[in-house]
Specification:
Layout (H helix, E strand, L loop, with lengths): L2 E11 L9 H7 L1 H6 L3 E11 L6 H10 L8 E2 L2 E2 L6 E4 L2 H17 L8 E4 L3 E3 L7 H4 L2 H5 L6 H6 L1 H10 L5 H17 L8
């Protein structure tokens, strides 16, 4: 697989504390955050696993810049809040350098404002709760049924589910939209063909 995307929440502790081992513990311990003065930052983000022999970090950065408005402050589109800000998490000094150069290039291209994207060292990522995974797909029961009875863990990792989730959210690239839409229409007309070719 060239690139694997998985939606995750990123919780970054802002003080030295005992590590919280998983997201469920984080939820359970939220009430104590105020009393222990631990500040956690929640960021809606994706984890990208890629093979650098097939696609470079620089190429991924180009996709990043073209897929959102890096000049928008305190959110993206209709989603407002600090957790929706533009940010690149890097894995080491070379990625940080490449991200900084890329941000400068994006700023040069920008005619209408300051690029607000932050660049930070990668912290610990915790998977989003199951009801946040493939959210749009789950809001469309017919599309979800096309996946069959997959366990939640398999649904989260499925590339077909990711494509259908984008389709359900109307965020599908036009090329993929053209491949999926006729198959969905075919299912409505004929019944239940498998979407493995998508």
């Amino acid at each position: 697989m060239l690139v694997s995307l998985q939606r995750k929440w990123n919780f970054t502790p802002k003080s030295d504390t005992v590590a919280i081992t998983n997201y469920q513990n984080m939820l359970f311990n939220r009430h104590s955050i105020i009393s222990t003065l631990v500040l956690y930052i929640e960021i809606d983000s994706v984890q990208i696993e890629y093979d650098p022999k097939l696609i470079t970090f620089k190429q991924l950065l180009e996709v990043f810049w073209t897929s959102h408005d890096s000049r928008q402050v305190f959110g993206q589109g209709p989603d407002v809040g600090n957790q929706y800000r533009s940010i690149v998490f890097t894995n080491g000094t070379e990625e940080s350098r490449l991200a900084s150069v890329s941000k400068e290039r994006e700023q040069t291209r920008s005619k209408s404002g300051i690029v607000t994207t932050q660049i930070q060292q990668l912290g610990t990522f915790y998977p989003a709760e199951p009801d946040h995974q493939k959210f749009e797909l789950k809001r469309h029961p017919f599309l979800l049924q096309l996946m069959g009875n997959l366990p939640e863990e398999e649904l989260e990792k499925s590339s077909l589910a990711a494509k259908l989730n984008g389709y359900a959210a109307e965020l599908c690239p036009p090329r993929l939209q053209k491949r999926i839409h006729p198959k969905i229409n075919d299912i409505l007309r004929k019944g239940w063909p498998i979407l493995r070719e998508v």
